[in-house]
Structures are given as C-alpha cells and as structure tokens.
C-alpha cells in the first residue's frame, strides 16, 4: 500500500465576485462532466437530504421483498436511525449542522454504491431500478471533495479538536450530532492525502476508537474497515509527520483515548484571519450609533438605525432595513429560480477556480423597493445595476480575503466588460437575510473588523477612496460557516452612475 495517497473508501491571488461569473458558472453547471453540486449551499444540501429520504424509502420497501439479505439491510437502516424530514424547514435545520451535512454527503457519495451492489438481485427488481435512478443523482467526486474541504476549513480556521468535532462539540456548544467511524476515516484519508499528517492521525485514532460499530461481518465486507489497517495508517501518518525513531511512543498513543494530545503536535500561532473569525479582534469604542435622517429626503420622515464601523474607509451597518416579507420573497425566488455555483475568478489562467457558494441574480418589481432603500442609505444611484445577487453558503462555506473593486487601470482586459455596467465598483451593499448560529462572519483583516451576520441588516462600504482609486484597506473575506445557513443579498454601485451624486473631490 502506498503512503502517498490512501483511502479506506477507494473513490474510483486576487479574488472577487464578478458580473461575468453567472455565465462562467452556468457553463460549468451545464457540462455533463460536472454533475450537480450539493455541498456549496444549504439549499443544495437540503435537496440532497430529500433525495436521501427518497432513497431510504425505496430501500425500506425493497427489504420487505428480500428474504436472505433482510437481516443485514435492517442492521444498516437501524444504524442510520434517520428521521424522515417532512418539509423544507426541517431539512434546512438538519443540513445546517456541519456534522450532519458532512455525514449526508459521505453516506450518499460512498455508502449508496456499496449497498446498491450488495442488494442487486432478481428479487425486488422494480425497487432496484428506482434506487438506481436515485443513485444517478448522488454526489460525485467533486461534491465529496467540496465536503472534505469544508470540514477541513472548519477544523483549521476555528482550531477545533477532531475528538470534539466527532462527538458534536463545536466551539464549546454541544449539538445532537455525532460522526461515525466512516466519517472519521474519510477525513483521515483526506488529511493524509493533503499531507496534514497530525490531523490525519487524530482522525484515524478516532476511527479506531469507534470501530466497534462495524463489528458485523457483512459491514466489514462492505466498508472494508479492519482495525489492523487503521492502526497501520495511524502509524504511517505519525511517522511522516514526525520521526520513525518515536514509533514506541506512537504505539502507546493508540491505547490512549481520543482526547489525549498527540506527542509533539503543538499548535501554531493563530493568524489574523483566524483571530478575526474567532471574534477576538478588539472593537473600537470611539464610534457611535445614530438614526440617519440626512442622506435622502425620505429619511427625514423615516430615519434608519445606523452604526458607524469605520471612518476611513467608510463602513457602516444599517439595522432592521429588510422586512420579513422581503427576505422571504428573495429566498423563495432563489429556491425556485436558478441557483448556480459561484466561483472565484482571476484573469490569470494559472490560478485555479474555486467554488464558494450557490448564487443567483434577482430582479422583480416586488424587490425594486430594496434598490430604492439602498439609494436612501447611500445617497447614490442604483440605475445601471438593478439586479441583486443572492448567495447561500453550504458546508464550511467561505470566501477568502479579496477586494470588490476591479482596478481597471491595471486590469485592462476587464475594461470593456465593466464599461457596460458603469465602471468599477464604488460601493458594496451586503444585506444579511439570515442569522448564522456559528461562523459566517464578514472579516476586514487589515482593519481588525469582524461583522457577524444579523438578519435584516445591511453592511455598506466604499471600495474606492475619495480620489476614485481602489482602497486596499477594504480587503474582506467570509469566515467559514460552522452551523446555520448564511443567506446574503448583495448590490454593488458602479462609479460612473454617481457622476451627479458623489461629492466633488476637493483634495486633489
């Protein structure tokens, strides 16, 4: 067995959103070699949960027709103990937990083919056909890889212990979710193949600790879990991550409980990005909250609650500026409209694209009032960019620090595209259309500012300074979502639209 790439399951920069992303993403979505991706949004994971419920229904009916194999199949269903979720809200609640969402992805990607092969026979042929049709919709390798990345981000960015994650303890809060041997070993394989050997060893040890749940011979045959093989991979990971001279110590570690720290596995110094996502950055005390009644004539009649976050660059939060009706309308339009994979984009073809979420462009007469409200909050025009961008983040969904401005003076290849939409992005308006239980904060690392999602609020900042030049202090990112569903509605205001709105520059 090669130590370079291993699996117990044997599965056969400058970043920014761009208005050209929808075409790019739809092209990938329509590519037959790139099947539907569930992991990148809670909406997709909810669909997958519904698909799993259908699959379990078919499997239950099929087992009623079997005689010889019914005992082993009943054991499988008993082990899953999955409650059928009757509606969308229940499915969203289920897949909002990263442990349940990861388990869902792993089961549907890795378990279904194994159980399907085991159950093939002439008995219940109609049920087998039905399950084959569902299996065709199961996650592919790309989807499973996104789930691995999401779990890795959650563990790494928030500095979580594998043993805590496995038992459902996330950032000190206990959840009703636990990881199985299969989930632990799957993450061990992924970490090993990413050369994260210390993390891999922890997951392998957890898999060994919980391996009693696969003591049935049929389960061993299907999953291929052998304790000796798991111990071997643990030792290989420890040797590759440290030294072969310490093998006796590694053997003793196997007898320890999963919460016992590994020898010589000290943690590094946290990055500014991590500390920001942890919420440890100090808050400024010299800024104020007030009712804004001056930006537009309408606000004199109905002022809005505004909190100043930064003076330079200008960053503010407006509270309670979206109604429940508007949020529901936008979410419903997204759920029943076209939601595509959104990607990071770079003009340099050497930089690899990365999925970050699912999104869609919204425009309806009912939501036009939101654009009018943006004009009231900013005092600027939304004339050429009336579409709003909806985004939903899935398992460990994030966006690395990036800029919203394009800097057309340096990126001349994009000039023609952005000329059609009014020039560079002057202002970004980010509406939070959901609360997020854990994670999902917006982080400005160069300003030591962390903003946690609050349903109905709007975060607004200038991307260009008073001279019209890109402001590098506006670099921002999205911390990985741990638990919950992060929905946002975004609008960007183009600089040329503000010709008669933006105050003249007096500091040239």
Can you describe what's shown?
Catalyzes the post-translational formation of 4-hydroxyproline in -Xaa-Pro-Gly- sequences in collagens and other proteins. The chain has 508 residues and is of the alpha+beta class. The protein folds into three domains: 37-145; 160-259, Tetratricopeptide repeat domain (Serine Threonine Protein Phosphatase 5, Tetratricopeptide repeat); 285-498, Jelly Rolls. It has 18 helices and 17 strands. The protein has helices at residues 21-29, 42-65, 70-80, 88-95, 98-119, 125-135, 141-157, 162-166, 181-193, 197-209, 217-223, 227-241, 247-254, 272-278, 297-301, 324-335, 368-378, 415-419; strands spanning 169-170, 173-174, 289-292, 304-310, 315-319, 340-343, 355-362, 388-393, 399-402, 425-432, 438-439, 442-444, 449-451, 458-462, 476-478, 481-483, 486-494. Helix 2 runs parallel beside helix 5 (98-119) and helix 5 packs across helix 6. The protein is globular, with a radius of gyration of 25 Å. The chain starts with 20 loop residues before the first helix and ends in a 14-residue tail after the last strand. 39% of the residues are buried. Mean pLDDT is 82; it is low at 8-32.
How is the secondary structure organized here?
Blueprint: H1 21-29, H2 42-65, H3 70-80, H4 88-95, H5 98-119, H6 125-135, H7 141-157, H8 162-166, E1 169-170, E2 173-174, H9 181-193, H10 197-209, H11 217-223, H12 227-241, H13 247-254, H14 272-278, E3 289-292, H15 297-301, E4 304-310, E5 315-319, H16 324-335, E6 340-343, E7 355-362, H17 368-378, E8 388-393, E9 399-402, H18 415-419, E10 425-432, E11 438-439, E12 442-444, E13 449-451, E14 458-462, E15 476-478, E16 481-483, E17 486-494
Antiparallel strand pairs: 1-2, 3-4, 4-5, 5-14, 6-7, 7-8, 8-17, 9-15, 10-14, 10-17, 11-16, 12-13, 12-15
Helix pairs in contact: 2-3, 2-4, 2-5, 2-6, 5-6, 5-7, 9-10, 10-12, 12-13
